[in-house]
Amino acid sequence: MTDRALRIGAGAVAFAGAALAAYLTWVHYDESLLVCVAGGGCETVQRSAYAEIAGVPVALLGLVAYSSVLALVVWDAPNARLGAAMIAFVGLAFSLYLLALQLFVIDAVCTWCVVNDVVVAPLLAVLTAIRVRT
Amino acid sequence: MASTSPHPTKRPSGRAIAIAFGIAIGAAVVLVAVALLLRNGDSTPAARATPVVDLGGIPQAGSTLGSPSAKVTLIEYADPQCPACRFYTETIFPTVVDEYVRPGKVATEYRGFPFIGDDSVKGYRYLLAAARQGKLWSLMEALYRNQGAENSGWLTEDLVRRLAAEVPGLDVDQLLSDAEHPDVVEEASNAASKASAAGIQGTPTFLVKVGDSTPYLIQVASVEDVRAALDDALSG
Predict the structure, then answer these.
(1) Claim: this prediction has a pTM higher than 0.80
(2) Residue from A36, A81, A82, A101 whose CB has the most chain B CBs within 10 Å, to mutate
(3) Do the chains contact at A41 and B202, CB–CB below 8 Å?
């Protein structure tokens, strides 16, 4: 895989992550979208005590993180590559923590949150890590 | 690895990368620790002492609130523990009552979908017991504005006794006795599977029935949504 392909891939994944986080931030703030779904759901997860840190929605933190990675991928200086990988790594670790919360603490799974935790965050961490030394 | 873009002139050294990822690991640990320490407390809204809407003088029969001759029926599938049902009751339901139910244009029917936990079924038993006295909607309104966190054990007999005592005309002892009646227990226990079989997936779910026609699903996320749906049904 060429570095250009890796860069485009990392940018696309970061953009997808930002879009996902933006949607989840919107859902978090829009009370009218609240519905209780059998088997739990985004709404249950998004209304849990773990959905905010000191009043800031975790989805908003995700939006900031993905936007930062996207900006660093566009910039593409060596230090920007390292910075993107660092943020993606922290994001992956935090996503795994959020996944554990959904499975073992909140007892409800939010589909789009899991898409982020299992697909987007790991993929971005791998792509940005590969690009650090290429 | 082949490259088609300008190669970075100064790649980070192995040491710089090790330090960077050491910092990243530290940052991840700190972030998770801060997240656990500064998470929100109980996010359940506080109980309200006074009714969100006055139901006095509006006919109640069984699980239906409103005139028996109302042309349109708004059916609500709900769970007593569902925070979204509480949100509907506190923010949209008062408008439905004041603009449509009290004038006799629309009746509204409560159907239980108690799926969240044991307290959901327990709460629905009390509502069905209240329905036997034509007070389901009065008790429902009181339960929702005093709702606690899901499956936290908030729905106690003491709470029901206190709230029921505030409902004019509701015989509290009869209510508590009826809640244990085998027919009520069976209906409450079977309600969730019955609603699921009817295709209901979450709460609140709303359907509109015009006359004796087949009910159809509507989306209610705001007062405007419910006004549009009911006005449409009334004009049809």
Answers:
(1) no
(2) A36
(3) yes
Alpha carbon A117 to chain centroid, angstroms: 7
Closest by CA to A78, choosing from B22, B28, B5, B26, is B5
DSSP E strands in B152-236: the ranges are 202-203, 205-210, 216-218
Q: What is the pLDDT of residues B169-212, one digit of tens each?
A: 999 999 999 999 999 999 999 999 999 999 998 899 999 999 99
- Taking residue A46's Cβ as centre, other Cβ atoms within 10 Å add up to 25
Average pLDDT value for residue range A10-39: 84
- With CA atoms as reference, report the closest residue to A64 among B42, B31, B36: B31
* CB spacing of B28 vs A47 below 8 angstroms: no
pLDDT tens for each residue of A69-107: 999 999 999 899 999 999 999 999 999 999 999 888 877
Chain B interface test: which of A6, A8, A35 (most B C-beta within 10 Å): A35
Contacts of A127 in chain B (CB under 8 A): none
Average pLDDT over residues B213-227: 93
Facing B32 at nearest CB: one of A52, A94, A134: A94
CA pair distance B233, B149, nearest whole angstrom = 35
Residues 6+ apart with CB under 8 A from B4: A2, A3, A4
